[in-house]
Amino acid sequence: MSDISDIVKDENFFKERLFYYLEDSIVEKVLNELIKEGFSSKYFMYDCEITDSVEYAVSLKEKCEFCDEVLNESENHVISESYRLNSHFLSLIREQRKENLNKFLDPTYIQNLERLKSKTRKLIPFIGAGVSVPFNLPDWGDLLLKLNKGLNPTDQEMYEYLIKEGDYFRALSVLKTYSVSYSSDVEIKRDIKQILKSEYNKNTSIEHNVNDILKLESQFFVTTDYDNILSEYRGKYRDDFVTPLVLKDLEDVQDLFSNDTQQVIHLHGNIDIPSSMIVSEEDYEKLYNDSKIESILNAIMANSSLLFIGFSFKDKYFKDLYKMIHNNIKREHFIIVANLHPIESKDLLGQNLIPINLKIGNKDEYTLAIKTILEELY
Length: 378
Ligand SMILES: [Zn+2]
Prior knowledge:
Layout: H1 2-8, H2 24-36, E1 40-48, E2 53-57, E3 77-85, H3 87-104, H4 110-117, E4 123-127, H5 140-147, H6 153-164, H7 168-178, H8 185-199, H9 210-214, E5 220-223, H10 229-238, E6 245-246, H11 253-259, E7 263-266, H12 281-289, H13 291-303, E8 305-309, H14 316-328, E9 334-338, H15 342-350, E10 354-358, H16 366-375
Parallel strand pairs: 4-5, 4-8, 5-7, 6-7, 8-9, 9-10
Antiparallel strand pairs: 1-2, 1-3
């Protein structure tokens, strides 16, 4: 319910406004609940056709302020239901948020959050795999374990060992060299696509941050994920699906800023275009030695601050490129992280990333903690 207050604030609103963000049936339910609890009031907006004027009434038994006809006895008024959140409800939400912020934000990082808040007008969210976790999508290690086929027992043991060590490139290379099921990247990518599609739980009941991210209303989004979760949610609530972009189809970053269509840019490829997917070390070498990704990221980082969400910042290729660009263009970029030790915080600052550190007691709080930070940015 606190989501609604971000959308409509203390203004009069029509319920259609909420259809962007919530299912139609949920909107009805939530509005009824809010009225029942005394958190919201219902008004009737009437357009008097006799005098061509607009006013609000609390009841349809009222007389029109302009022509003096009783509203529900007259045929000269176009009436629409409108709502407004009560100040009592809004202050309850503010209190709840303050409480959450105290609970989840490490107080050492309040200053950093204030700096982030001053950048919201030019903020581009950079989405990592963490955001897809509630949708049951496997992380890299789990994904590689699922690709495990066609290896003899010794190779399989090596494969699993390398995955456990986090050496994903070498694991992939073992798979490609020794598995009788795979002879090329094309087949591996085809299987990755198939695994991600079948594991994806579209109607997850687990809380996630996708709507919170969309509510940032940034001009576009950048991700290294292959999946289309962000685009799907964006399309659902805006009623116009915009095709996600892979690097080779991206011509001009300035268009992204000026078109403001909230398109999703997939730096490492997209699940629906397997050939675009950056998987093996060779793919990474090719992508990061090409000037395209550099010029794109350069243009984005020159014009906006990035906010990394669900992104581990461990990808060496990306880290190097980010560092190089940042050396030329000094702008502040931010990352939301959890349970950081001061020494790790220093590491991030050394990499020119301003951390916003969350205190998380158990894994289930992660989504709410991120939501709490994003709510500060609307
Ligand atoms: Zn009237």
